Amino acid sequence: SRRGGPSLDRALDGLAAARTTAGTAPAPRTTVVAHSYGTVVAGQAVRAPGRLAADALVLLGSPGLAGGGAEQLEVDEVFGAASPADPVAWLGWFGSAPSDFSYGDVPLPAEVTEGHTDYYDPDRPTLAAIGEVVAGVGGEG
């Protein structure tokens, strides 16, 4: 995560720069969707110098992020999904997790039987909610 986070940050900066020079108005929405240890990588991207070049961050089954809650993540919108059936989301191995109600994210719907690999299951409500966040049309849990 210490190498991947800064790489993700630079990739997002490059994407933002390319979109700015392309002259599109308004700029397209950028959403980082991270699952499991990928949320730790996203947390390291936030810690890189400068502001994270994204509009929204979706954290799925997160084992926790260093540095506090959602307000520390440098994006306007932070969403999270955690199921009681996903032990990774409740362990907090790497810091505070969106599964903690005080984290400050907008919870996405997750069924109580969703396991750690079920957030992208098209038969579960989480995937549709992720799509709404990416499209910028909802995502309220």
From TrEMBL:
Q: What residues does the DUF1023 domain cover?
A: 3-89
Q: Which Pfam families match?
A: Abhydrolase_8
Q: Where on the tree of life does the source sit, at the highest rank?
A: Bacteria
What is the protein's given name? Answer: DUF1023 domain-containing protein
Instruction: Give the organism the record lists.
Output: Modestobacter versicolor
Lineage of origin: Bacteria, Bacillati, Actinomycetota, Actinomycetes, Geodermatophilales
